[in-house]
Amino acid sequence: MSTGTRRAGIVAALLLLGGIPGFAAETASPAGTATAVFAGGCFWCVEADFEKLPGVIEAQSGYTGGTLANPGYEQVSAGGTGHTEAVRVRYDPSQVSYAQLVEYFWRHIDPTVKDRQFCDVGTQYRSAIYWQNEAERKIAEASRDTLLRSGKLARIHTEIAAASAFYPAEEYHQDYYRKNPLRYSFYRKGCGRDARVQEIWSAK
To answer: How far, in Å, CA of 56 to CA of 77, rounded?
Structure first.
């Protein structure tokens, strides 16, 4: 899913790319719910991780942080639009807080690398927390600063930036881990995601 990276070959072997371009989504959330936006490399994996967390209603794969309106997968994966592969999480704040989402996010990515996540290389795979208001910004920055002060991580390259338009990815990307469990597992293991996460966080 990036220019000349290992994932491009893996995904090419798994998918016949197609589908419809992304489209701008409504920003309003149903009553009693809230949203949060994160980027952590492959959106299949980030979506799957968040949907395991109690209090999360759903996670939607998409594109954000770029300059092109309504980008499609091939445009974003080529790396020229400025977007990241991202996930918009819809959650119940009475069951899980935004701060808890942020803490969960850190422990499912590699914050120590710039413009990549695991086997995926390029700015489109940079990790990011996209805040939607001042309260979220303060929580995200405080969480990052606490991690740095703790000495658990020597450096953090994860971007903390204001949210911008979020464009849902093509339908075949949504819930990919449910629709194609064997192919998804093959990709995730081949990319070394879980092994690296365990290496970073197991003793922390």
So the answer is: 27
Fold exhibited by the domain 6-14+31-201: Peptide Methionine Sulfoxide Reductase; Chain A (3.30.1060)
Q: In whole angstroms, what is the distance from residue 62 CA to residue 87 CA?
A: 6
The gap between the terminal CA atoms of the chain, to the nearest Å, is 31
**23 or 151: whose pLDDT is higher?**
151
User: What is the rounded CA–CA span in Å between residue 117 and residue 40?
Assistant: 7
Predicted confidence (pLDDT) per residue in 39-62, tens digit: 999 999 999 999 999 999 999 999
pLDDT at 20: 30
Q: Where are the domains of the chain?
A: 6-14+31-201
| Burial (Cβ within 10 Å: 0-12, 13-18, ≥19) of residue 60 | buried
Q: Is 42 a catalytic residue?
A: yes
How far is residue 10's CA from residue 2's CA, in Å, rounded to a whole number? Answer: 11
pLDDT at site 147: 96
